Amino acid sequence: MDAIIDIAQINSHLESETLAYTSKILQQLADRLEKQQRALVLDVGTVCNENINFFAQRAKKLFVCDIFAHMNRHQSGGLKTKGIWRHLDYEPNSFDVINLWNSVEHLNDKDAKRLTEICSKIVKKKGLLFVIDIENHVSAQAVSSFVIGKDFQISLRPQTHLDFPWYCRHNRAVISLFTSFSIVKIFQYRNGLREFLFQR
Amino acid sequence: MFKQSEKAKKAENDSTKNPIEVSSTAVDVSNLSRDTRTSSRSETTIIGEKISIEGNIRAEENLTIEGFMKGSVEIAKHSFGVGSKGRVEGEIRANNVLISGLLHGKVNATGKVEITKNADFYGDIKAHSIAIEEGAFFKGEIELGRDPHKKDDSVGKQMKETGYRGKQASSVPTVEAVKEN
After folding, report:
1. Contact partners, residue B88, CB within 8 Å, separation at least 6
2. Has residue B179 been placed in a domain?
3. Which of A15, A168, B20, B136 is most buried, judging by how many CB atoms fall within 10 Å of its CB?
């Protein structure tokens, strides 16, 4: 069962609560992309210049489909959330890697499941799904970008123009959203940051 | 703000009633509007808000679209821009490209592509480098030119430039739990 936290209560904590960590998975993924040089990568998180440059310089092509921007537009236009999925209209088996950073935790179970189902279709067989989110930390509750810095350090940058609920999920609940994938790695840090690498 | 030729003023006034539509393969836009703030070496032609063009443009100076344009643009050695009120559908070939309005189509830039936070972009980008502001509406694919001899440090540099600082990696707690299959 999801637990929705009121964003208004925690916004005041955000400026002083900056989280960062050095991503083990990102390091390994970057090595793999550099060796491969022909990978097609899809990023469905919020538009982030540093991340776009990081992946575009390592992949053959980077595809960007910011689902939050689409959700924002649908919401302000009074449209239903389900309409956003048509934007992920990629051919089946298209991508070597899909990044879902700080994405599923702002979707309810139904929408999160729908997103992972779409990902399982458009990622190649043996392709990877890279998920980063935060568990049990005040910064998790507002929409943020995970921003890639130097030496694979990842920091949080709040996206003040976006306002979506946060659904708190423990590891088991997160993993249950990705039933069509197998787990490759999970790293969980004391500061609440988690990263999951799944494979189709 | 901009010094416009009589022809350009007339064109803008007329376009409120009858938008200009051009269907020729190449359009000479040099007389439509000229930004006199820039030096003669980098003059910019501006297609005004109330002008719409259908066709192809080949230019040898900077060009900014504030109106509507459907077709292709080729400006090999200069910059192309879509202003905040501009709407462009088509294929762009230019040195640098700045998008602040709506662009649906393909961009092929030998230099840099910049997309501002109010931009709305759908399409493909091939460029040497790219900068996208947060808040921009973006759906598309990006292919950057690679320099095999240059080690990428753009991310760290951008973080420094924007003054963004997270906690240092050394202060981050160590891995609490690791599960590997």
Report:
1. B65, B68, B69, B70, B73, B82, B101, B102, B103, B104, B105
2. no
3. B136
Three-state DSSP state, B162: coil
Query: B19-55, pLDDT tens digit by residue?
Result: 444 444 444 444 445 443 443 456 889 999 999 999 9
Residue range A3-199 in CATH 3.40.309.10: no
pLDDT in tens, B116-137: 999 999 999 999 999 999 889 9
How far the first Cα of chain A sits from its last, in Å, is 25
Domains identified in chain B, total number: 1
Look-up of token digits 């202003």: B83
Mutate to test the interface with B, among A25, A47, A154, A199 (most CBs of B within 10 A): A47
Backbone conformation region of residue A187, classed left if phi is above 0, alpha if psi is from -120 to 50, else beta: beta
B137–A66 C-beta distance less than 8 A: yes
For residue B77, give the amino acid letter.
Answer: K
Interchain CB distance below 8 Å, A18 and B129: no
